[in-house]
């Protein structure tokens, strides 16, 4: 298991903690693989009743590590990031998330696949896929409009408009906004401990029934988004956007029709 993903056990609670503070918990291939491995193992481990995904009290994740991402971009369904997406999307036990500070890109979209989400009021969310010459991922083009409506979804996904923890609650992305990151993590842990006391088969069945009306369509959308995302990574627009990001300059899209 990567030291950048800390795995903590407390009775039936498994906590997966993002631990790369020097890079604002930016996610690498190694970290995605560790998360996927942990979720796949937890799915088969009957002693695990609930999973908590958290960062620190100051930062959830700044999204993908762009340098690592460009060195070996995802190329197919077996890529670490897609393995993680499938493991989380298909996980049958409750998943709770605690968010403080920035939650960028997949740091926001993964929350759409969690059952309970607790955030610091000042947490900062952003899905800047188009800004990077890419496209929405992890089912966000399907799930976000269901939550906030098509017009607001266009602001969040086409313009990359950011929002706060309190807005995340108003949008239906999070359950509660707490005073700070420490409070959000503690509240999430309290809910996890309560969930693990419930009858596990009844909880799993309820989760399956809640997702049943849309899960097949969601899987189709996630697959299509993934294929398009990989294609976009090789596009001139994405090359310009990602190069500008690494070079700390403003991108120039004026030459693109």
Automatic annotation (TrEMBL):
Top-level taxonomic group: Bacteria
Sorted alphabetically, the keyword list is: Isomerase, Peroxisome
Keyword Transferase listed: no
Pfam families per UniProt: ECH_1 (PF00378)
Tell me where in or outside the cell this protein is found: Peroxisome
Gene3D superfamilies for the chain? 2-enoyl-CoA Hydratase, Chain A, domain 1
InterPro entries linked: ClpP/crotonase-like_dom_sf, ECH/Chromodomain_protein, Enoyl-CoA_hydra/iso
Protein name, UniProt field: Enoyl-CoA hydratase-related protein
State the organism of origin.
Pseudomonas triclosanedens
The taxonomic lineage of its organism, from the top, reads: Bacteria, Pseudomonadati, Pseudomonadota, Gammaproteobacteria, Pseudomonadales
């Amino acid at each position: 298991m990567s030291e950048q993903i800390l795995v903590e056990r407390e009775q039936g609670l498994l906590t997966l903690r993002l631990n790369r503070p020097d890079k604002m918990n930016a996610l690498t291939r190694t970290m995605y693989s560790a998360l996927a491995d942990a979720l796949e193992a937890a799915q088969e481990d009957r002693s695990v009743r609930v999973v908590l995904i958290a960062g620190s009290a100051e930062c959830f994740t700044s999204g993908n590590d762009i340098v690592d991402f460009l060195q070996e971009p995802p190329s197919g369904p077996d890529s670490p990031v897609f393995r993680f997406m499938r493991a989380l999307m298909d996980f049958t036990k409750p998943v709770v998330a605690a968010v403080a500070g920035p939650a960028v890109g997949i740091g926001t979209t993964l929350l759409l696949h969690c059952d309970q989400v607790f955030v610091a009021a000042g947490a900062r969310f952003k899905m800047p896929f188009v800004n990077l010459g890419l496209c929405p991922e992890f089912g966000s083009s399907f799930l976000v409009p269901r939550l906030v409506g098509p017009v607001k979804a266009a602001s969040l996904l086409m313009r990359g408009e950011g929002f706060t923890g309190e807005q995340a609650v108003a949008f239906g992305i999070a359950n509660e906004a707490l005073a700070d990151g420490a409070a959000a993590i503690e509240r999430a842990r309290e809910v996890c401990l309560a969930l693990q006391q419930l009858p596990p088969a009844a909880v799993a069945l309820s989760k399956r029934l809640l997702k049943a009306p849309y899960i097949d369509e969601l899987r189709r959308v996630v697959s299509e988004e993934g294929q398009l995302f990989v294609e976009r990574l090789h596009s001139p627009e994405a090359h310009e956007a990602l190069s500008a990001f690494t070079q700390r300059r403003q991108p120039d899209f004026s030459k693109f029709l």
